[in-house]
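Schema walkthrough. Field components (list of strings):
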Amino acid sequence: MPKIKKKRLGFVIDMTPMVDVTFLLLTFFMFTAKFKTEAEAEQKFVIKRPYASADTSKLPDKDIAIIKVGIDTLTGDTSYYYTIVNELQRRQVYDNLNFTPEQRKPQLKVGLDMLDQLIMQTRITGPRTRFAIDGDRRIRYKWIEDAIDVLRKNNATAFNFVTEKRQ
Amino acid sequence: MAGGGGGLELPERQRRGKKHSKRKKKKRVGFRIDMTPMVDIVFLLLTFFMYTTTMVTPQVMEISVPKEVEENVEVNQANLFTLYVRGDGKLFFSMGTDEPQPLALSDLRSKAVELNLLRKNKLITAFKPSPDAPYGVVVQVLDILNQAEAEIIRQLQAEGIKRERKFAFVKLSPEEVEKLKGL
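Field assembly_structure (string):
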């Protein structure tokens, strides 16, 4: 009865190039993935960063020293932890301060006086080193205030607070 | 696509074929592997790595402080906007020498924009967090002020004024901390 015969077209798309590109992207991202450093993997404290949504700059990965203020997972105490990212600079600073082998950790638990000395040496060994304060959002502001004072004393007046993107 | 042969075969032809050729029919087994699950997994891995490599670098807020803490700078009180954060995380504000008033975090942004547009570049924002204020709240306040800053720059630019931000961290004295607790 129907005179009009509908022409049925078959769509066949070969997906091979798409899969190739996907594999390429995958290998690219696998190579650029950053894994936890040894220091980060064995750290015994936790830092829940404060939220901020207007920040756009990322934490630099060279020429930087981080003052972490973290809460110990076992005791719940707050403490300063200082880490110089550049290994060569770190060794120089530790040499200058005559540290014993046990003290030469990539992430060192310190008090305010030692922090002061470390920051001073960091600035001497690397004048372009930037500083960042990575604190847990639950700590009292006094810890940060004291850290800022130490930085100010050592002439490091521009620094960063490490934050987390607010969801 | 070629599948198992299916079609109408006339019985006579088959029989005839059998007689003509030698029966060396090798059974050809075709290997057809369906690659769909593999591609699914690859896409999953790809999205995982894409997501995590961008998430792993933390972001930072840039702060700069003056080297010397200048005590008692002469300031026109009418242009002074002071923000306090108490130990329990509550916010207070005061203009000039007025009594500190409570301020909700959600109102901070509009307040900051309003005052800055009123006084333009003459307004000085003094931030006085109490030493026992939670650091998270301090950063939230700074974040909101940064967000407000974007809007202020835009509005002032519309009026032809170049924005000069005047902001300072000021230490809270013990008496002021006590006073704040009583509010």
